[in-house]
Write a structure and sequence with these properties.
By secondary structure, the protein is mainly α. The chain has helices spanning 2-6, 11-36, 41-62, 71-92, 96-119, 126-153. The longest helix has 28 residues, at 126-153.
Length: 154
């Protein structure tokens, strides 16, 4: 039974990998959209690098380990990536309702991340824990701003 459990992939490493992929993808978007003078290219690149990539990487690194099955971790991962896709897609096609739906998924993913962190045993180096929580709260506070901007632009 332990062998089967040890072969199960935890959500943390997947978040880390997807975060790295998003950072590279954001760099490629910046490289290609700059010369094409695409108006929303810099926004899309920054969103991919900072929100989808860096934030997801940090969430994966801070995800409490050793909890199997970790359904909340997988729900967090799915909510973050699907929500991000909806926000990006809704912004690019000027459809604020998609941004709203994606934002709701992002809020849910952030809530799951914060709950998992609050339930985790205290980590060594409390400043890292507080920095992580601050990042989650900054992301949470930025979502209503993004929603309002999406509706004002469209």
């Amino acid at each position: 039974m332990d062998t089967a459990r040890s072969s199960v992939v935890a959500p943390g490493p997947v978040m880390i990998a997807l975060g790295c992929v998003a950072v590279v993808l954001g760099g490629l978007v910046a490289a290609f959209t700059g010369p094409l003078d695409w108006a929303k290219g810099s926004w899309a690149a920054a969103y991919l690098v900072l929100v989808v990539g860096a934030a997801q990487y940090v969430m994966g690194r801070m995800r409490p380990a050793g909890r199997r099955p970790d359904r909340t971790g997988w729900a967090q991962l799915a909510g973050w990536d699907l929500g991000s896709l909806l926000v990006i897609g809704g912004t690019l096609v000027a459809t604020p309702v998609l941004v709203d739906l994606g934002s709701a998924l992002l809020v849910a993913a952030l809530a799951l991340a914060l709950l998992a962190d609050l339930r985790a045993p205290e980590r060594a180096g409390a400043w890292g824990t507080w920095a992580y929580r601050a990042m989650l709260l900054v992301l949470l506070a930025s979502i209503p701003v993004g929603i309002v901007l999406s509706h004002l632009r469209n």
